[in-house]
Amino acid sequence: MPANTPSIDPGVRIGHVHLKVADLERALRFYCGVLGFQITQRYGAQAAFVSAGGYHHHIGLNTWESRGGSPPPPGSTGLYHTAILYPTKKALAVALRRVLEAGVPLDGASDHGVSEALYLRDPDDNGVELYWDRPQVQWPRTAGGELAMFTRQLDLNALLQEIETPPTTPAVGEGPKDL
Fold this sequence. Notes:
With 179 residues, this protein is α+β, with helices and mostly antiparallel strands. The chain starts with 16 loop residues before the first strand and ends in a 19-residue tail after the last helix. The protein contains three helices and nine strands, in the order βαββββαββββα. The strands form two sheets. It has a five-stranded mixed beta sheet, covered by helices on one side. Strands 1-4-3-2 form a four-stranded mixed beta sheet, with helices on one face. Helix content is 16%, strand content 26%.
């Protein structure tokens, strides 16, 4: 990139993601039933928009080109994951509890220094990251002040301690679903 090219406006944000799904009802059971998003608009059996907090939509789901389809094969290009930012560590812990109670397996859980993240897959095999950001003053930095992110195993049981865990939620590593 040429040195005189201006940077993007710092107020720019990713507004929403729109996913092709094979089965709209199945996708809604995951995004609304498991994760807790609310439907804001629906277009029959073909598409729906879901959001948190009354926003018009954070996630669009449609079957326009994908009804009954299968995920892309490994080794192909496409979306790696959708990242859903939670406002607090406690809110992420509540999301973890919902995921565990729904029996959705985790692909991983990482502490990146700047954030703590859970990785899983939706019913169409799309990657989903659930995470919260630490305050910027806590982000790891080099002696020169540059960002020094890392990836370490996230302690899921410690995360669950952010909330009062009901006895029906097994500790991670216990019971039939060892994550």
